[in-house]
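A common beginner's mistake is to predict each chain separately and then try to dock the pieces by hand. The better habit, illustrated here, is to supply every component at once so that their relative placement is modeled jointly.
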Amino acid sequence: MVGGSASGRWDARDLERRLCKALDVAARAVPVLAVEAYSDVSNPEEVLRPAKVVAETAVLLLAAARATPACKSVLERVANVAQLLRPHAQGDRVRALVCMEPALALDHCMAHVCLTQLGYLDEDLDGLLAQSLTSGAAAARERLPHRELEQHWLRQLHRGSANIRDPDERSLLRRCALCTGLDPFSSSRDDVYAFTHALMYVTDLGSLKPRLPRSQGNIVGDAEAALAQSLAEDDYDLGAEVLLAWPMLGARWTPAATFGFRVLTSVEDEAGFLPALSIRLDRYRALVGEARTRYALASAYHTVYVMGLLCAAALGSGWLPAREVPHASRARGAAARILDIIGSANPPPRWRECFGALDPPQQDCLGPLLMAMGLRQAAASRELRTIKALLEVAVEFGVVGGPAPRHGAELLRRAARLGTTLQGPEL
Amino acid sequence: MSKLTEAEREIVSALIESKAVDFEAVGSALARYGPSAVLNLDFEDVFCGTMRTYVRVYRVFGPQGPIVENPQALRGEIAGELGG
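With all components supplied together, the output reads:
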């Protein structure tokens, strides 16, 4: 298979190759998307702002350079993209915004702060940022907890003290999704993004091992449920973000995470890049010239960057993904029973093809992932009988790990209190 | 109320033009209940009930919802554009 090594771990050179591809896309995206806002006529309300592209590119560069300090091919690309980025990250427009909007100063300087870490200094802008952060209006903005954590992270990077924990961070951590957890049945994409972004900031992109507000096992359990959600929906953008949890926590790659990484790499290898759900071939074909290029880059760059970030995180953590999904020593036959109950969508999501290529004992090892997918799907369809059937299989085969079976049992108890029949379509 | 996208507007137009949603029939049916409904039903808009919505079209997401494009087609057409 692609990317394997004799050690049983993913080949680091293959991860570097994938990271280089993401940086090559960045070199194309910055000149096209960092200059003016982009929106497609088929979806005019979705506007891609240059500042978002600039900030995300800088984060990718920082993660890539930290992860591979001795990899010439990565570092050359980082240097090239950094030069393209500097006019947008440290230019007059950013200075004006930092001057005018102290409450957003760190947001405007996200790319500058990351570039500074890479040695691309701008002392004038640093001075202006420091002055803006002392303004009486600097704190005049209400943010969600994970966005507050982002501000802490940027402030610490700006001070050059990312390893010094801010006392306010503890209370923020207690309010963010890393502590409150994710609902395995009804969490939205925004909920999952709040979870993954909090993890990025609190670990300084994986370089710190902070004291977490819950056990690593519980946080990984939430990540597995979110991974099930993203794989079931072919949402590779979300899937790659969720997979960041393993290397950034320094957690051992679980069978579900190993499988998720295989699905993503197989799609990336087949498509030539990791595609987003939003990209549409009919829309692409309807465009010509520069409009076509802008559409392709605007639709694809983010998911490509997240894949690059995932490869960088895996390389930097030293915890390379496992090459193969392990074989289950128990719960034999669990996967087939769960699949019988949950059926399949038409067309089937991509994970089914990768799953079909596994040996039955490997498939059984993914029982908890399938259980989380099935329970979420049944809860979304209000099929309480299916939830009950899945939980019976969970008990029979001991597939009860992670938050989904517990939430399923709680849901049935609540439904029983309502006196609801197990049909429940009207729920 | 959020603005309709171009695709959503096309769908609404097609539903009206094809009479898949027959507004004349809907109006005719409601007219039978209009006078008594104003007096008897629990409308938020107590004057004449015109603010009620009787036809809704839902866009359903889920496992059968948005599916990513064919990877091989993406390689053939878009991968080169990205330069990756």
